[in-house]
Design goal:
Length: about 325
């Protein structure tokens, strides 16, 4: 059976249009079994890499997240949590900077942290791998990635977004443990994605990030929304639209090796926009400066120290204010 992926052209962040797309995507993937039921507890996992404004394209745009909240409220879900594990700062700080703050009162959403590091075994036998045990508190997980170039993995899309369930500073340690083997790291994140198994993925490809992503790139008007449940199919389609060869997208190479998801475009059923040739773009720039997977230990230590100082300063400021 082919994987159903919905593509829709969307030039701007019109909330009504995005809500309609989310509703259509959920309906198509609820034909056999409902994705959401009244009383469900649902986790939204956007890309909240670092505190930044939406127009900087580092994070999943708040309108995409808001559209999902609206649709979930229509289903009468009991709880909606938004969580990620940012490189720097708390998830709450990063989410509010990204414009998610109003959702707390507007939709009863909770901006929260991923907690309870829990050991996960993989075929790679990577030591110290722990993902958030709090994922088990939810009936369903919604994956909300942003289309971005990536200086280490070429692109960060649906599969890579779920590396965020590894809590905090454990991520750079895992980067080091794969010994700069990008395909091995790809297999690691594919195994994490398989374990997390989100029910649905809605990709923010309206304004993507090109160049030196995932933080220092520039906006690119891709003008697409992508939805589906097969993460590999989604990533294959996006890579094809951006005209990035599969062998440069290490998560896709790894997915093929592990037989995870659609192995080719022929195994994908396009819905919505079906003329893939017409959707392909030219001029999307990848990172000019490629980086190793492994992080410099001094860089990790510097990041730890910076975060400690920031937290200590904020706590002192709050105490003085009282």
């Amino acid at each position: 059976m082919k994987s159903k992926i919905i593509l829709r052209k969307q030039a701007d962040y019109c909330l009504e249009d995005i809500v309609a797309f989310v509703r259509d995507t959920v309906a198509i993937h609820s034909a056999a079994t409902p994705l959401f039921r009244s009383g469900d507890r649902v986790l939204l996992k956007p890309n909240l890499l670092r505190a930044s404004k939406p127009e900087q394209c580092v994070v999943t745009h708040p309108k995409v997240v808001e559209a999902v909240c609206i649709v979930l409220n229509d289903f009468g879900v009991k709880k909606i949590d938004i969580a990620d594990s940012p490189a720097l700062g708390s998830p709450q700080q990063v989410a509010r900077k990204a414009g998610y703050g109003p959702f707390e009162k507007r939709y009863g959403v909770r901006l929260t942290s991923l907690t309870r590091p829990t050991a996960m075994e993989t075929l790679e036998q990577i030591p110290h791998l722990k993902i958030a045990g709090s994922l088990n508190d939810y009936n369903q997980i919604v994956n909300l990635p942003k289309v971005k170039s990536h200086c280490q993995m070429t692109l960060t899309l649906a599969i890579k977004n779920l590396f965020g369930v590894v809590i905090g500073k454990r991520k750079p340690i895992l980067h080091c443990l794969v010994q700069n083997d990008k395909v091995k790291f790809g297999r690691l994140i594919v195994e994490i994605a398989r374990k997390v198994a989100p029910g649905i993925t809605i990709v923010d490809g309206i304004t993507a990030m090109q160049g030196n992503g995932p933080i220092n790139g520039t906006p690119y008007p891709l003008g697409l929304l992508i939805g589906g449940s097969d993460l590999t199919a989604i990533d294959r389609l996006i890579a094809d639209i951006l005209q990035v060869p599969e062998e440069q997208v290490y998560a896709l190479t790894a997915a093929s090796q592990l037989k995870y998801g659609a192995e080719s475009l022929e195994q994908i059923e396009l819905m919505g926009e079906t003329d893939l040739e017409a959707l392909r773009v030219t001029g999307f720039e990848l990172a000019q400066r490629k980086m190793d997977i492994s992080f410099n230990p001094a860089r990790i230590a510097k990041s730890f120290l910076k975060q400690f100082i920031e937290i200590a300063f904020k706590e002192k400021f709050a105490k003085d204010a009282r």
